[in-house]
Amino acid sequence: MHLRLGSTALLLAAALGFVPRPAVAANEFLLNDDRVDRNQWSPRAALGKNGMLVVAWMDGRNTVGSVIDYDVYAMTIPDPLGLGSSLNRRVNDDAPGPVQGFPDVAGSPAGTFLCVWEDARGGNRDIYATALDSVGFPLGRSLRVNDDVGPAEQLVPRVVATGTSGYLVVWGDGREKQGEIYASYRATTGPPLGPNRRISVDPVAAGSFQGEPAAAWGRGGRTLVVWLDGRESPGVASDVYGQWLDAGGAAIGGNFKISTPTAGHCASPTVAADSTFGYVVAWIDRRDSPGDPGDVYAQRFDLTGATVGGNIRVNDDLPGRDQRRVFATAGPGAAAVMWEDLRGSLGIDANLEGAFVPYDSAPPSANFRRLPHGVGGRPARIAGHLRDLLPHEWSAAGLRHAAER
Question: How many C-beta neighbours within 10 Å does residue 24 have?
Answer without folding.
Answer: 6
